[in-house]
Design brief:
82 residues, mainly alpha, two-stranded parallel sheet, 3 helices, globular
Length: 82
Amino acid sequence: MDGLISIVEELSSQDFIHVYPYFIHKKNAKNNSYYDAFCLAMRKGVMGMLWYGFNTLKEREILHNFMRSQVENSSKRRLQGI
């Protein structure tokens, strides 16, 4: 996770990141998660895809709404949940 975050720090809006974690919110010793790395990339305007499963439509809605709240300040960012 920390390696991914350090790579994200160097990316720009011309880059693309694909994150496919097994545990999306599990924090490591430095209190970072794969979701944190993905959100950092979104805030920087890096194009990306977060591949993550859910068991119910309610879980999908909660995750999608939380992610939308992370990027709602910019018209450059678009969130698509499939």
